[in-house]
Amino acid sequence: MTTLLLVEDNELNRDMLSRRLEKRGYTVQVALDGAEGVAKAKQDRPDLILMDMSLPVLDGWEATRALRADPTTQAIPVIALTAHAMDGERSRALEAGCDDFDTKPVDLPRLLEKISRLLASRGAS
């Protein structure tokens, strides 16, 4: 079964998105801040990470950089999730090491397509 790590501090967003992803057959683990997300990724090595960029303790930008700097997590695909759809946010996320970018509120069919594409390119199902 494919495991996703959802790093999201907003309880409503976290609960809604994790339920919708679980209904699609994914196992969803959650982390409430960037530091916890990095620790869980190192420990559990999920197939893909959904990373909110505005997080407490360690923001999504720095958490992604930390994941990319560690050989045990550097190959895990990361999709940035942000409510800030301003110009430059996508390129900023990609520069931090994210593999893709999506805006909130989440358009589930679009996000599922991005997840499927990244998992297929990694060889996970």
Please explain how this structure is put together.
The chain is α/β, with parallel strands linked by helices and 125 residues long. It has a single domain, classed as Rossmann fold (3-Layer(aba) Sandwich). The protein has a 5-stranded parallel β-sheet, sandwiched between helices. The longest helix is centred in the C-terminal third of the chain and has 15 residues. The termini are close together.
Task: Note poorly predicted spans.
Answer: none
CATH topology: Rossmann fold
Q: What is the 3D form?
A: globular
Q: Can you tell me the number of structural domains? A: 1
Taking all Cα atoms into account, the compactness measure Rg is 13 Å
CATH architecture annotation: 3-Layer(aba) Sandwich
Q: How many β-strand runs?
A: 5
CATH superfamily: Response regulator
Estimated structural class: alpha/beta
Query: How many DSSP H or I helices?
Result: 5
Q: SSE order, as H and E?
A: EHEHEHEHEH
Rounded average pLDDT: 94
| Physical arrangement of strands within the biggest beta sheet | 2-1-3-4-5
The CATH class assignment is: Alpha Beta
Distance between the termini: 8 Å
**DSSP strand content:** 15-25%
- Biggest sheet, open or closed, and with what strands and sense? 5 strands, parallel
